[in-house]
TrEMBL record:
Superkingdom: Bacteria
Keywords: Cell membrane, Membrane, Transmembrane, Transmembrane helix
Source organism of this protein record: Pseudomonas rhodesiae
Record Pfam families: LrgA
Membrane topology of the entry: Multi-pass membrane protein
Protein name in UniProt: Holin-like protein
GO CC term (a single one): plasma membrane
Main localization of the protein described in the UniProt heading: membrane
Length: 128
């Protein structure tokens, strides 16, 4: 076997391990500090700080993040399958659930957009 064949696989596994470690660190911080914020969100905040400080370059984790994004549907299949068990709830309260999902999705999109805008402006000011 060629040594070059294992290089992309090794890089992918390394990036996935780093992303998992950041996630687990976020979970531990949320638990230790008893924050009412999910560990995944804390981990994303840690990753944002690492990117903004220049400690980690986004291109460094691009391959691993791309694989996770490409397979994101697999993370939602268990949640979708559980709808079969709660059909009555969805029929009776479905519009409220959709309203909450829509509002929370909009809130996430707005916060993400403003965060990206702030980071880009901060970076432009500090690069000059």
């Amino acid at each position: 076997m060629n040594r070059l064949t294992f290089k992309p696989l090794g890089r992918l596994l390394t990036e996935l391990v780093v992303l998992l470690a950041i996630y687990l660190l976020g979970c531990q911080l949320a638990a230790w500090l008893a924050w009412p914020i999910p560990g995944g969100v804390v981990g994303l905040g840690l990753l944002l700080v690492a990117f903004a400080s220049g400690l980690v370059q986004p291109a460094t984790l691009q391959l691993g993040a791309g694989v996770l994004m490409a397979e994101m549907l697999l993370f939602f299949i268990p949640a979708l399958m559980s709808l079969l068990d709660y059909g009555g709830l969805v029929r009776n309260e479905g519009w409220r659930i959709l309203l909450v999902i829509g509002c929370s999705t909009l809130a996430v999109m707005l916060v993400t957009a403003f965060t990206v805008e702030l980071v880009c402006r901060w970076r432009l000011r500090h690069e000059v």
